[in-house]
Amino acid sequence: LKLVKQSQRSFRIIHYPTTEVVIKAESCYEAIPVNSNACDGSLMSSLKLELQPVLSGSAKDRYFRVSSFKDLNARLRSVIQKVTCPAAPPAEPLEGPCDPSTNRGCDRSLNQVCVKKDGRNLCTCPPGFQKNPVTQCCGGDLCNPELVSSCPHPDVCKITPFGNHRCACLDYYYRDPKTGACKGSQPPAVSPALEECDADRPCPEHEECVRTKAGGHTCQCASGYERNYRSDKCQLPGTCDPTIPESCDQRKRERCLPDGDKYTCQCEANYKRHPITECLTSYFSSAVSVIDECTAGTHDCDQNAKCFDTDESFICTCNEGFTDESPDPSQKPGRVCKQQIDECTSGTHNCSVNAVCINLPNGFVCRCKENFVDFSPNPNHFAGTDCRALVNECADKTLNTCSENAFCIDTREGYKCQCKEGFMDDDELRNPGRNCKKANRICSEGGHDCDANARCIERGASSYDCVCSAGYIDKSPDPSKPGECLRQE
Questions:
Q1: Which of 148, 149, 383, 488 is the most exposed place for a label (fewest CB within 10 A)?
Q2: pLDDT of 171-198, one tens digit each?
């Protein structure tokens, strides 16, 4: 597939070699585009990771490899939604406070709305959204409600008052003042990373006490460690904490399991990672875990079909000797497989006795035998139903009606007649070569008695006329024999 930008709100998807589909971004009213400077710190990071397999070929042409068009329903649509949506307009200049009835005076690109509070009109976050202290946006990145992985765990994708969707914290969650990520049910009175540290107040495990620009001291992760925004602990990159229930994304069927001398987020038994959505966050290998329906027996393939597991789902393919008669074979093949019938062997075909029957997976075709001609009513679609022997009518005079002064030419469908040289065809349009008469050559061979100042014009097969040339007049005494020409004075 090649993704080509067609307009501000749509992309044209070319499915090589011939298929072409236009996909429009429908539900992205006032969404933030990729090149926007507002609210795009984490958006750019996650979008870059999501587009990693897309942008691998060229910076201008975006390629997205999918096994079938069903994959466009969520994942690629999410990419298109983020790339094609027009930028939200900035806050309109307005003297005085904002207007709650129109939201004028508030920055829509930051997902702000105008409300009346304590007798004053203020720009604030809409219900269900919290201000991100890092990006100053009300909520997280733009997201696709059809794609669970478009928001980092434990965020959920919610619709905004402006028609687009953003990641939001669940009820009883708050946004961390350092990372902007959704965390536990109650915010701490003082963030651990902001506490002073010294000999009497040492830093937690894997952290070290460093001097700040303001002259104080604070704890930060030691070299080789990074802070987990869920637990606020410093740990090795890619590891998890089995004592924290939400250490891994349960929506993606991941569990914190032993991995050598450490713990990592892993897929459950009979599940596997999806390569397209791998590493959507910088803290965990949060790949989507997809169950193997073929092994688990949860597929709906026909009993006469094979089940092949794929990254997204599974594919059914009818066994050899069976025909796919599924209701939607292009999108869901192998759901109904019927045993093929050999019409050629069973004698249920309608081929001519002078034709060869060829069995095919979806039926049969007829081909006329050598030296037989196909006279079927519809030879392009149903050939070989009427095969007639190839006969040379020219070899037997009784089988053709050509004139004795014509050539007989044998053809695949019959024969045709053509008058010989020196003979004229009296019925060339309707019955060519059937009535051939000797050509009139009296004038050309000099067999006429026209005056020297007259022109000889052949008429019919054996007659001619004499016509005086220009500048001469006919003075013939016998009108039936014109052509005695004298110069005109």
A1: 488
A2: 778 888 877 888 765 554 444 444 578 8
Residue 404's domain spans which residues?
Answer: 393-438
**Model pLDDT, residue 271:** 66
The residue among 308, 339, 370 that closes a domain is 339
Q: How far apart are CA 399 and CA 433, in angstroms?
A: 15
Two tokens at 376?
A: 């079927």
Could you tell me if residue 219 is inside a domain? no
Q: How many domains does the chain have?
A: 4
Q: Residue 472 domain-assigned?
A: yes
Please report whether residue 49 resides in a domain: no
Last residue of a domain, one of 339, 358, 373: 339
Q: Which residues of 403-415 are buried (b: 16+ CB within 10 A; e: fewer)?
A: bebbebeeeeeeb
Q: Quick check: 36 pLDDT over 70?
A: no
Answering whether pTM is above 0.90, one says: no
CA 298 to CA 401: how far, in whole Å? 75
The verdict on 455 and 471 lying in the same domain is yes
The answer to whether residue 368 sits within a structural domain is yes
